[in-house]
């Protein structure tokens, strides 16, 4: 961030107690901490936990995890439930937060979850998704977009599932 997002003045680095060097606006006399988007991604599992749902968006040849931006006033968990229902028409029964990674290309902090769909047969995709398909874990490893955050998240989740190291997922009332 080079310029103040309020007044447009060029920012310079200034020591902020306990924070280190932070961009500072002399005109507004305020520190300008970085602004970025926040989104969730999730590996949606079927109830038997032996398949994962991957999606393909328009103009893409590879599969990715279902994902969406967190709306103002919304928790990551609410976003997860809303996005799965909006994009593929499925109800999430359980979920667990896994980890986060920053995606520089879109200036987004991605919060990754694993979730379990109530009934995989009720899938109805919306206009944001070109294709959605259930894959075995081995199939998913082959078709997930190589070198992507989705691949990194998926491989970590599959390793933990196969090592029986996922623990309990949170149920939804």
Can you describe this structure?
The protein is of the alpha+beta class. 20% of the residues lie in helices and 36% in strands. The chain has three helices and ten strands, in the order ββββββαβββααβ. It has helices at residues 76-88, 137-143, 149-162, and strands at 12-16, 20-25, 30-31, 37-45, 51-56, 66-69, 92-103, 108-117, 131-136, 170-171. Strands 4, 5, 6, 7, 8, 9 and 10 form a seven-stranded mixed β-sheet that branches. The chain has a three-stranded antiparallel β-sheet with strand order 1-2-3, with no helix packed on it. Strand 7 (92-103) and strand 8 form a beta hairpin. The termini are far apart.
Entry summary:
The protein is an alpha+beta fold and 173 residues long. The protein contains three helices and ten strands; from the N terminus they run E-E-E-E-E-E-H-E-E-E-H-H-E.
How much helix is in the residues?
10-25%
User: Could you spell the SSE succession in H and E letters?
Assistant: EEEEEEHEEEHHE
Q: What is the residue-averaged pLDDT?
A: 91
Distance from N terminus to C terminus (CA atoms, Å) equals: 42 Å
> What Rg do the Cα atoms give?
19 Å
Query: What proportion of the residues form beta strands (DSSP E)?
Result: 35-45%
Uncertain residue segments = none
């Amino acid at each position: 961030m080079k310029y103040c997002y309020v007044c447009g003045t060029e920012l310079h680095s200034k020591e902020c107690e306990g924070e280190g060097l932070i961009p500072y606006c002399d005109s507004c006399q305020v520190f300008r901490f970085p602004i970025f988007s926040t989104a969730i991604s999730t590996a949606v599992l079927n109830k038997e936990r032996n398949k994962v749902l991957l999606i393909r968006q328009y103009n893409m040849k590879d599969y990715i995890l279902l994902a969406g931006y967190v709306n103002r006033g919304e928790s990551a968990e609410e976003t997860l439930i809303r996005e799965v229902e909006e994009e593929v028409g499925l109800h999430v029964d359980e979920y667990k937060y896994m980890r986060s990674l920053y995606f520089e290309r879109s200036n987004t902090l991605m919060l990754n979850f694993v979730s379990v769909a109530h009934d995989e047969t009720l899938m109805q995709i919306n206009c944001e998704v070109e294709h959605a398909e259930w894959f075995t874990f081995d199939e998913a490893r082959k078709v997930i977009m190589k070198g992507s955050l989705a691949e990194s998240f998926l491989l970590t989740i599959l390793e933990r599932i196969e090592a029986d190291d996922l623990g309990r997922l949170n149920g939804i009332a």
